[in-house]
Amino acid sequence: MLFSFFDAAQFRGFPDCMTPWRPLETLRRALGALALGACCWGPAQLAAARDASLPVPVAEAVARARLGATDASFFVQEIGIDKPVLAVQADLAQNPASTIKLITTYAALELLGPAYTWKTQFVSEAPIVGDVLMGDLRVRASGDPQFLWEHLWQVLTDLRNRGVREIRGDLVIDRSVFEPIVHDDAAFDGDRLRAYNVGPDALMFNYKATALHFAPVDSGLSVWMEPRVPGMAPRVDVRLVDGPCLDWRSRLQGDFSDPAHPAITGEYPRDCASRTWYLNLWSHDEYMRQAFTQLWTELGGVLRPDFAVRSGPIPAGVRLLAERTSAPLAEQIREVNKFSNNVMARQIFLALSTEPKSAAAARQNVSAWLTAKGIDISPLVLENGSGLSRIERTSARMMGAVLQSAYRSVVMPEFVASMPILGLDGTMRKRLTTEAVVGSSHIKTGSLADTRAIAGYVQAASGRRYVVVSIISGPRAIAAQAVHDALLRWVYTEH
User: Fold this and answer.
1) How far apart are CA 10 and CA 279, in angstroms?
2) 116 close to 347: Cβ distance less than 8 angstroms
3) DSSP H stretches of helix in 99-183
4) Which stretches of 342-381 are assigned E, i.e. beta strand?
5) Residue 227, preceding peptide bond in cis (omega within 30° of 0)
6) CB 112 within 8 A of CB 330
7) Confidence grade of residue 27 (pLDDT, cut at 50, 70, 90)
8) What's the pLDDT at 50?
9) Fold annotation for 119-183+283-325
């Protein structure tokens, strides 16, 4: 079987609102440097924090991190108990970064159901004469968050097994499940090439990320692109160097003004072995054209020289030729929460409305759903439900209320299972790995240039379970990890 260059083991999306990944690691790196300096926790602020019931180990970690005195919020509450154990600046509305995905995925589990699936159908009104489809192949797109390389391969294999060898028309995509989407790939951070900046699409294929692969070989350095289309190839002037594989991406420069022939220069350490650089280079239609052309050709199929991918409605009288039913929602949200996949989160958020689906309608539905649960949504600002936003807001207390509600819900097992396990997997796999707290907690992380957040559940050494939320903002947020680790350690050991 042909496997995707973005299979589940390689590509989990874009963690913490900003990080595309290499296979296993590269696409998980954080963006940019953070500015230093702020009004920091001195003796007076530390004393005030202690007076406000901030635990000493946490207060000391805050002081060491030199956080601004008003930048950190904390909320800890035992499951099923009304009074919080800890509430410091818990009503402060802050950007929660990727922890907002917990609201999106909890809402999806309840409003759509854990078994909810997306169906992508390939149809045509054109006759099949011999082994030739005499017109367009059409796609009834559903907004599937995870329609991957291997899924398209299976669909096209099914089509070949029906006896179709040649397609005389185009690939025409019916995107009417979504309202028309206008998305500026550079709007978030000015870098349209970043794979995490891919906007939603009714036919979201393989996260629309082009893979630029690097592998040292006996003759030098092999570099190739996927999708692989005849005539497309990178221009490479990269020197292999000795030394450890540290921050390999910073040693490469790319000119992508001609995306079919990007120019790659710099150095590549031999110790890196194989690495992948993921890029957002093409429109959705062009990306699908390239992938479809590659797979159909590899399967022995034939396309006309001017084969194109375009949008259009499904006419009457079509017949079903092949289809793909997605993995159920409960499985997909594990990718979203454990690995902070922004692209999938945005697709799921759009699903939270009636057709034609829109972000505005999803925001209204999620707000109404939370309100019906008795949750105060006054701090809440939703944009796209992924955390890849400058305007999304919530408070630690509100997030705590959401987590309490989720724990009482019938979808609790699926929801909790979707979250990273402390010290073991997802975005928490490298945290506190040698301490007793490892494995005790399901914690979603969130990271932006000026935000670090955690939200989730801790089962303390006592056996009691707690909701834990902390959001740290400001120019020193980059130093927040030690604070969050101190908080998790304190909840586990002291309760």
Assistant:
1) 15
2) no
3) 101-111, 149-161
4) none
5) yes
6) no
7) very low
8) 46
9) D-tyrosyl-trna(Tyr) Deacylase; Chain: A; (3.50.80)
